TrEMBL record, chains A, B:
Listed Pfam families: TetR_N
Keyword rRNA processing: no
Ranges where the record places region Disordered: 1-24
HTH tetR-type domain span: 24-84
Family matches, as InterPro entries: Homeodomain-like_sf (IPR009057), HTH-type_TetR-like_transc_reg (IPR050109), HTH_TetR (IPR001647)
Alphabetical UniProt keywords: DNA-binding
Keyword DNA-binding assigned: yes
Protein's recorded name: TetR/AcrR family transcriptional regulator
Organism of origin: Streptacidiphilus fuscans
Gene3D superfamilies: Tetracycline Repressor, domain 2
């Protein structure tokens, strides 16, 4: 099934909304409550019952949509990853078209993907499944897919030419740094330090990518 | 109390070993078992009882050394961080003294700090406490201290001159990238990709740090 635009909540929850729309809204509420729950209380405290209550949905309805806890949380992390990816692409249209300000804005945007509730939720999921041989392949598949999409977005936004030696690895390093910055932010607000690193990283990328692109 | 060199286990566990030495060996066994346990089964499954059994120590003795679960695991992550730090400093003596091979070896060594059981254990602890307001300050204090030491080591090994603009942030970015690479490795072996990124990042650092150092 291809991704559907999200129906506005007030119309979709009214008594006259078709059953299919109400079902979609219920599903979306569960997914959003699951992400918030994972980010706030962690994997151990995140159960289907807790998420259903937070979403204002009956436990039966929750289990209809997501038979297992793993179904719910994997789908939740994927759902928000897709939303964030779409948000990045639309925000990218507002960036300056050239120059060092553009590079810094792009790096900031990429780094922002790894801070906030989605990253916190995804991190809880990764760490929980890292010790679980059954669940790991599933989250790994999701993570690989999201990682590939993010890499493509980064290449496009930076105007990087991956046919030049080292450029692919430089873009990957940028995303690994972004992930590391996200991790540094989970215990305390690391925003001031992060802003300085983003600025310096943008300078490095400008030097690296332009020397490769125009040689 | 200043850090003590670790007494060899066979002598210290013999019946003739002084009580103080036996106590130190028991403590060390518990700390090492705690790190392995955290890395392998995660925070939820890591209790004092499980660690005591793994270490071959009675539960009473474990609780004598570490009254709470948090005492045990915070001490465990710190213990191994101190050991790793010492290992890095002694391994650093074997590095080539100059040239691009040195930079790549240094970057690899720094990145290695964020892979393996210690990083996995620390990650489990960070993520567990990120949703716990009481425990977070304690782990944050430990993490800040270990982070500062690692930064000083990186500056020294790279021969970076932080009085030049951007150099401090470049070293920080290197460690954030290393942390991100560690996180990328928790779901599957990311070694091949990581080696390519380390090589490229070493090239970038050589260009960045030499243009700053010799300008």
């Amino acid at each position: 099934m291809s991704p559907q635009p999200v129906a506005p909540a007030p119309a979709a929850t009214s008594a006259r909304a078709p059953k299919q729309d109400r079902s979609r809204v219920t599903r979306q509420r569960l997914l959003e409550a699951a992400v918030d729950c994972l980010a706030e209380v962690g994997w151990t405290g995140s159960t289907v019952a807790v998420v259903a209550e937070r979403a204002g949905v009956s436990r039966g309805a929750a289990q209809h949509h997501f038979p297992t806890r793993e179904d719910l949380f994997t789908a939740a992390v994927e759902h928000v990853a897709v939303q964030r990816h779409a948000a990045v692409q639309s925000a990218a249209a507002a960036l300056p078209s050239r120059g060092p300000n553009r590079t810094e804005a792009v790096v900031r945007m990429l780094v922002d993907l790894y801070t906030g509730p989605l990253f916190r939720a995804a991190l809880q999921l990764w760490v929980a499944v890292s010790t679980d041989d059954q669940l790991r392949p599933r989250v790994l598949e999701l993570e690989s897919r999201v990682g590939r999409e993010t890499h493509h977005t980064a290449v496009a936004l930076l105007g990087a030419d991956e046919s030049h030696p080292g450029v692919r690895e430089t873009v990957q390093a940028t995303l690994d740094m972004a992930r590391g910055l996200g991790l540094a932010d989970i215990l305390s607000d690391d925003g001031a330090r992060r802003a300085r690193i983003v600025r310096q990283w943008a300078r490095i990328l400008d030097a690296q990518l332009s020397s490769n692109s125009f040689e």
